[in-house]
Amino acid sequence: MKPVSRRKFLNNTVRTAGLGAAIGCSPAGVIAAQGSRPQTLRVFSAPQAETYAAWCDHLAIGAAEAGVAFFVDKYLAENHTESLLLIRYLLNPPFADFYLGGIAGIEQESRARFSKPFPELPRRARDAVVHAAVTSSTVAWTEPNPNFFYFVSRSDAVDVVYGTMRGFRDLDIPYLQHIRPDRPW
Q: pLDDT for 93-133, tens place per residue?
């Protein structure tokens, strides 16, 4: 058996076991260590990605710019055992239906309350849709559970905004990842 370097061992452990947080990096940070983020969508349509990005950006400012929709889409398109999304630990696969249902729910709620798609809503209206999800007081959105979807999507948003070198720098926290990424995630 050939010896494995410490770097290769840690990189493989992070990638296969989803243990990024155990060595001081988030799933988005792990993607950064593996290369660049994808530029094409494989599961989300462009309007679905726009809605999810707007939703997540409302939960963590900067999530849309950081590519949250591409981050999630990447792992929905791949084998669930390779997924770095929080949902992997909370539900059984497949996960795409959960996300697509949540995005549809956001749009249903937005249109029921304000007759507009979520990305077109002003901040206060977006606040109302998010608040309804958080407090389980939605009028049109029932599945998946809006409160649970909020929890999962907030994790995605926070991961891409704060789980990177830039995010750590913005929080004035030393970035202590073993393998420095070449790109944001």
A: 889 999 999 999 999 999 999 999 999 999 999 999 999 99
What own/partner pairs with CB < 8 Å and gap ≥ 24 does 108-112 have?
A: 108/140, 108/141, 109/133, 109/138, 109/139, 109/140, 109/141, 109/146, 111/140, 112/139, 112/140
In a domain, 104, yes or no: yes
> What is the phi-psi region of residue 136: left when phi exceeds 0, alpha when psi lies from -120 to 50, beta otherwise?
left
Position 21 scores a pLDDT of 39
Half-sphere exposure of 28 (CA within 13 A, CB side): 26
Instruction: With 0.85 as the threshold, say if the pTM is over it.
Output: no
Q: Is residue 126 part of a domain?
A: yes
